Amino acid sequence: MQMPPTVTPRAFARLAEIGAGEQNQALRVAVEGGGCSGFQYDIKLDQPAEDDMVLEGQGQKVVVDSVSLPFLAGATIDFSEELIGARFVIENPNASSSCGCGTSFSM
Question: What range(s) does the Core domain occupy (predicted)?
Fold first, then answer.
């Protein structure tokens, strides 16, 4: 069985700050074909679906669809705030390389 992705307390805290749970929304993390390295992350607020894996913490939810789940096995979903901006980031042990923007990777 594959290890599910994990979500940091900082990522759950950011979802609480923006009121995602109050709007009955979750952070959806998906993997799609494309980007400069072959795969790219699609991260957005969305309604949970019936077949999603739901990761919960601090009253917030992060969801991953069944197709994306194998690509995110063992990954860590975090939130980063830097001088250049703030964003959700994914540390993925399955990615063999990634591009400079951090949203595209290959396996």
Answer: 6-102
